[in-house]
Amino acid sequence: MNHLISKLQPIDYAIVVVYLVVLLVIGYRASFGKKKKQDETLFLAGKSLNWYNIGFNMWGTNVGPSMLLAFASIGYATGIVAGNFEWYAFVFLMLLAMVFAPRYLASNVTTMPEFMGQRYGEDTRSILAWYAMVKMLISWLSLGLFAGGFLVRQILGIPMWQSVIVLVLFAALFAVAGGLKAIARVNVFQMILLIIVSCILCVLGVQKVGGLSALFAKTPGSYWSLVKPASDAGYPWPAILLGYPVSAVAFFCTDQAMVQSVLGARNLEQGQLGVNFIGWLKIFSIPLFIIPGIVCAVLYPNLPSADEAYMTMVTNLFPAGLNGLVIVVLIAVLVGTIGSSLNALSTVFTTDIYVKKMNPTATNRQIIKVGRLTVLAGCGFAILMAIAIDSIKGLNLFDVFQAVLGFIAPPLSAVFLLAVFWKKTTRRAVNFTLSWGSAISLGIGVIYLWVLPVKEYHFWPHYLLLSFFIFLLLVVLAVLLSVTDRQPVRTAIAVQELAKPTRRVKIAWTALCIVMIVLYLIFG
Predict the structure, then answer these.
(1) Which residues touch 423 (CB under 8 Å, ≥6 apart)?
(2) Distance in angstroms (rounded) separating the CA atoms of residues 205 and 433
(3) Rg (CA), the chain
(4) CA angle 253, 79, 289 (to 5 degrees)
(5) Per the CATH hierarchy, to which homologous superfamily does domain 4-34+45-386 belong?
(6) Which of 51, 250, 317, 459 supports an S-S bond with 409, CB 3.0-4.6 Å?
(7) Exposure of 497 by Cβ count < 10 A (0-12 exposed, 13-18 middle, 19+ buried)?
(8) Using an 8 Å Cβ cutoff, are 427 and 120 in contact?
(9) Transmembrane residues, as ranges (predicted)?
(10) Sign of the CA dihedral 409, 140, 102, 190?
(11) Is the pTM of this model over 0.70?
(12) Which of 148, 356, 178, 374 minimizes the C-alpha distance to 264?
């Protein structure tokens, strides 16, 4: 496959330069355009985010470079079934907006470990803080950066180490200079750009096929179904129905990189509307990211690997002038994902480790300095890990991404759901689930992926079902530990009078639910 760099014209370079200038101006204005409040830090944007900032920023964090590669690849091989990972998410986004967000904002917390620490004590906060940082370093930063470097290498033909260094340092610029406010403002611009470029790619592809009717006629009927038989090897419906919620609760409701935008909301209504907005944005994931892969299967059916679908479409369909936009979109998704992840990492470390354990009397200036140093340290770790991952041969990137999240998620989902919905949950049960429960879940994951890999040992269930079984085991153990605890220490937080959703929030979520049900009836 020819590298895209060989097709670039002067107008493409001009587009990239103009984009970088606009991006820096937006980031600078967000960071330094107005005098900051005395107590404003890098982390929650001074509680100033509106619904569209929150929605675009959460989507920008979610839409990483792996999505551009993986969704086109899955569309190429199996059709729209992977759309479940986007459309089914509306249930758990609603759980975040209606159940978790009111409690997070009422608790006035900066991080997820702080929220749990208020309920079960400092030991719980420390355990969750370290677990959250390890999760962000591996699943967000290292794997995400590797996917971005992999994509840049396909486009520009430069070595991995050069790709990841340039990309992570550019993303870190916003996290260091302006924190969440700069990242959120930049992501609004970048996600609009991503939508435009992805629409152009989809339209050009469908036109070349001969229109939508020709696309439907030239692809198997199974390509257009979200529900696969229970015997399907890739995405059986029981695995998605039962297993995906475990990952989704952990990802959307408890992950610092995702939830921090809601924590930075101007008020609860803006936070709930922002989460609703990302639900609407996710509807477009199938036409924007998956249908180009299906089109590629029609136009170029004999690719050596389905992973080449996205870049094959770009290289063959985009004329001169639009190729620069592809590079721009790549930078956009990297800045969104890596920037938000770096900010989340620095937030957890400074708030839950540095201030609580190392320097309780730290000034705001010291906290910001440590936060910036944490961002730089995270950059260094991510670069080294991405280069190390690149040295591993035969790695199936998408499967590893999904499986890693599937094995990280059960302890988080179990603990947060029990903490919110079952007031008899004890500190002992929570700490056991976060420590020994995590060891159980991650240990099974290591065995599944490397020791007794599923490709060689066929007794394993689907990894999503395995994640669900681990979740059930941890919930049962937590309940047993809670009811048998002779000296139970339960949540120290009194029952809170939570704000009711406003009429606007109710209308927005009712409309989204109706649309999603109709879509599932059509494509189910």
Answers:
(1) 490, 491
(2) 48
(3) 22
(4) 55
(5) Sodium/glucose cotransporter (1.20.1730.10)
(6) 250
(7) exposed
(8) yes
(9) 13-30, 51-75, 87-106, 127-152, 158-180, 192-215, 235-254, 275-300, 320-349, 370-389, 401-422, 429-451, 463-484, 505-523
(10) negative
(11) yes
(12) 178
pLDDT tens, the chain, 524 aa long: 556 677 778 888 888 788 777 766 765 665 555 544 444 444 444 567 899 888 888 887 777 666 777 888 889 989 999 899 999 999 999 999 999 999 999 988 888 999 999 889 989 999 998 888 888 887 777 777 777 777 777 777 777 777 777 777 666 665 555 444 555 556 666 677 778 888 999 999 999 999 999 999 999 989 999 999 999 988 899 999 999 999 999 999 998 878 988 998 899 999 999 999 999 999 999 999 999 999 999 999 988 888 788 888 888 888 877 777 777 777 666 666 777 677 778 888 888 888 888 888 888 888 878 887 887 888 788 788 777 766 654 445 566 677 778 899 999 999 999 999 998 999 999 999 999 999 999 999 889 877 888 878 889 999 999 999 999 999 999 999 999 988 888 776 655 678 899 999 999 999 999 999 999 999 97
| E strand segments, 470-509 | none
Measured between alpha carbons, how far is 279 from 479 in angstroms, rounded to an integer? 32
Cα–Cα distance measured from residue 128 to residue 431, given in angstroms and rounded to the nearest whole number: 9
Beta carbons within 10 angstroms of residue 271's beta carbon: 27
Note whether 135 and 349 are within 8 A (CB): no
Q: DSSP class of residue 266? A: S
Neighbour count for residue 50 (Cβ, 10 Å): 16
Is residue 276 exposed (0-12), middle (13-18) or buried (19+ Cβ within 10 Å)? Answer: buried
Residue 489's CB: how many other CB atoms inside 10 A?
15
90's tokens: 């509306």
**Who's near 156: CB < 8 A, 6+ residues apart?**
3, 4, 5, 163, 327
108 sits in the region (left: phi over 0; alpha: psi -120 to 50; else beta) called left
Q: Are 337 and 65 in contact (CB under 8 A)?
A: yes
Residue 267 main-chain phi, psi, to 5 deg: -160, 175
**Amino acid found at 295:** V
Q: Where are the domains of the chain?
A: 4-34+45-386
Q: State how far the Cα of 349 lies from the Cα of 295, in Å rounded to an integer.
A: 44
DSSP for 341-387, please give it: HHHHHHHHIIIIIIIIII-TT--HHHHHHHHHHHHHHHHHHHHHHHH
